[in-house]
Amino acid sequence: MESVLARCSSVPASYNISSLQAADSRAASSCSSTQRFASRNFSVIVLNAGKPKRGGSISSPRKLSIRCEVGSGTVSTVRPTEWFQKQFELSPFSRGCHIITRKIVNAIPEICEFEVGIAHIFVMHTSASLTINENASPDVPLDMEDSLNRIVPEGNHYRHLDEGLDDMPAHVKASMMGSSLTIPIKAGRLNLGIWQGIWLNEHRNYGGPRTICITIQGQKRADGRVYK
Known about the structure:
Structural class: alpha+beta
Pfam families: YjbQ
Low-confidence stretches: 1-17, 27-53, 55-76
Distance between the termini: 29 Å
Protein name: Secondary thiamine-phosphate synthase enzyme
Order of helices and strands: EHEEEEEEHEEHHEEEE
CATH superfamily of the domain at 82-220: YjbQ-like
Family: Belongs to the UPF0047 family.
Largest sheet: 5 strands, mixed
Organism: Marchantia polymorpha
Shape: elongated
Number of strands: 13
CATH topology of the domain at 82-220: Jelly Rolls
Helix content: 10-25%
CATH architecture of the domain at 82-220: Sandwich
Strand order of the largest sheet: 2-3-1-4-5
């Protein structure tokens, strides 16, 4: 594990975790095995950050632990940033907008280990998309599909008709809606609003299975336990 030792001769009252995380970020992009960053009353030494590659990047800078040594000798430790990634397949959906929040949560039980973080959810296709919207009324997904069909109608006016009239409109809708979501993690859960749900928008008549890749970055509980 890479480590960052921060010696603070005089730490300002406004100094906070964000400053340490900024040092974390700079350390990850360092181009030498030992690199010093300095600002007024604060210096950071990166130790054992890995061998530099061509172009200046460090090989596999996955975890950084920052320790701030205050003048009194008290040491405060910032827990390392952890990474987790899972790829899985969703069974085929009919054309339209579908709420998949529960499927996403069930696919990543490991999220219960994280106290705080970010979940990045990515659909690996060009004719399906992801979005966050209403999770209560069943009419909202139906109205959304109708609206998308009015905005991007099918027809012979497209050049790309290789797989049918729904082919090119599906690509346009996928670009409009987007292929990824970023959701905060709080106390082992996706920190969604009470009326928010994760939608998979299937833009093809017969889209087939859809592959989802979820990447989590964050900090786990200090006591090593998991949230229930």
